[in-house]
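All the exercises in this workshop are built on plain-text protein records. A record pairs a protein's sequence with a compact description of its fold. The structure tokens are whole numbers drawn from a learned vocabulary of backbone shapes. Once this layout is familiar, the rest of the handout is easier to follow. An example says more than a description, so a record of this kind follows.
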Amino acid sequence: MSTDQDLLTDGLLAHPYAVYDRLRDIAPVHRVTGPDGSPAWLVTRYDDVRQALADPLLSLDKRHALPGGYKGFALPPALDANLLNMDPPDHTRIRRLVGRAFTTRRVEQLRAPIRRTADRLLDALGTNGGPHGSTDLIAAYAAPLPITVICDLLGVPDEHRRDFRAWTDVLVAPDPARPQAAKEAVVAMLGFFTQLLADKRKEPADDLLSDLIAVRDESDSAGSDRTGSDRLTEDELMSLAFLILFAGYENTVQLIGTAVLALLQHPGQLAALRADPTRLPAAVEEFVRYDGPALLAIRRFPLEDVTIGDVTVPAGETVLLSLAAANRDPRRFPDADRFDLGRDAAGHLALGHGIHYCLGAPLARLETEIALAALLERLPDLQLDGDPGDLRWRPSLRARGLLTLPVTY
């Protein structure tokens, strides 16, 4: 077993794309040590990753994992019964129930509210610093925008939003010096969602969570069986609320941050986009290809021995599919390490592929488009404040994102 512990800890955290370039050439399906110290297989070439993402023999259900393998987050059942751990038919049933809220047409109806939120956040920058100032764009803009949007969609009260953001940050990048912090965050979130569901049952509102509760409770009162097409268990309901909030916030804040950084580091392309903002929807595809929010897809477990590339992976072992490496594969995207808003980035895998394609992709795209449009319009002299080499990134092998983004305007 040719593991490379240093490669996946020090190297990948500091220089992920350089590590992936090396692996694609020398070992595109590589036996590694996973984030928790357990063994896994890392897949880095575009064709292999794309095929594996859609392979029904690669299960997301942790019950198919061998003992001792990497399984991802350790969550209680009430938060773990979500789409990231499911195969059909349960995956199909639950995705059908919630998918109606995330169609492109439904999401487009959120355009005006999202823009109002973006303008309000930028107004606060003007109020605090006058027409010129400096700020951390993650804390002041990129983070509060998606947490506001997703909490409004679900119906989460304002007073709980800061807590949820803090819990999410702890789970995405656990601090080795505080081993109990992640467990405490999970306990706090479990209590939060338990109370939130109870409150929504007492006082339903015009929001997604109230709608999902109605589906759950009405199916119970009607006496439908476990295989009914509109059936949710209580754990599935709570887990779904957790996943929508967690993913809806986490992925979008990272994408907005890395997109702004890419533009600030490429002033010629920033000027071209500012001159023609109608290019923004297409530009979002290059942002997400070039430096997307997820380095890895959710771990998978072969139901039987499978061949990936020219390597046979035994049943039950953990497979990690590198979305970031696939999106920088020069076999698929010529000059792939170059940021180019004129590129046709169609076919990127940043948001997945197949039946597990990101449910919230339309919302993430729209939020990023609107966030950047507002910045281009209202902060014409936006610049990076300091040396790019001093920027701090999340210490996470899963999520790719900035801890801070200091700017002047």
Summary: The chain has a mean pLDDT of 88. The beta strands are 29-33, 39-43, 58-59, 134-136, 301-302, 306-308, 311-313, 319-321, 383-384, 406-408. Residues 234-265 form the longest helix (32 residues). The CA atoms of residues 118 and 371 lie 6 Å apart.
